[in-house]
Amino acid sequence: MAGLQIEQIRNLDDFAVLYKWDVWFTPPPAVAFDRNDLNVRCLSSSLPTSAVQSIDIQIRGHHIKQAGIVDDDHTINLTFAETVDNTIHNMLHNWREALWETGIGKQKKRAEYQCDMLLTRLNNQDEPIWTYKLFGCYLESVDWGGELGGDTSDIMRPSLTLSYDYFKMGAGASVQ
User: Which of 82, 85, 109, 134 is the most buried (most CB within 10 A)?
Assistant: First the structure.
């Protein structure tokens, strides 16, 4: 077999880059927010992951493995850039209160605090090339943005972990 040649690499399509993506939520009824406000402030997102469980089978001294259940990680992390109008803090506060009203310990119905999320990778022309659709998302944990202090000129970066039931993925915007 011949070695790798530069023309083989030059004939590959454009490479998928890490900085071209969009995140969209269908806002839960109990938590009104502008999904475009979140998209423009979202600094980073992890991607959903899956793992194939393995089944060990031992029969009369022989050992083989077989694929078992495919299970998702069921969590995804997002980091946002907060602005002085507190867009992210307000959204996170309202979502947290929809899950558990702090003062009285009351929770809204599941359909009111869950949403779906679209995470779409884009090509260099900002066209969708791959979409992950996460179903049944809800706020699992919040980091409100780090530590306040006088020794940095950084911005506030609230981050959150969302739980989800399952996800589908596919080319472009074709995922239903």
Answer: 134
- The strand pair at 166-171 and 159-163 is best described as unpaired
pTM: 0.87
Question: Quick one: pLDDT at residue 1?
Answer: 59
Would you call 27 helix, strand, or coil by DSSP?
coil
Whose tokens are 């899950």? That residue is 99
Give mean pLDDT, residues 15-42: 89
Report the alpha-carbon distance of residue 146 to residue 155 in Å, rounded. Answer: 10
Residue with tokens 């260099």: 124
Q: How many CB atoms lie within 10 A of CB 25?
A: 20
Q: How far apart are CA 60 and CA 68, in angstroms?
A: 21
Instruction: Report the 10 Å Cβ neighbour count for 134.
Output: 24
CATH class held by domain 14-171: mainly beta
Q: 72 - beta bridge partners?
A: 50
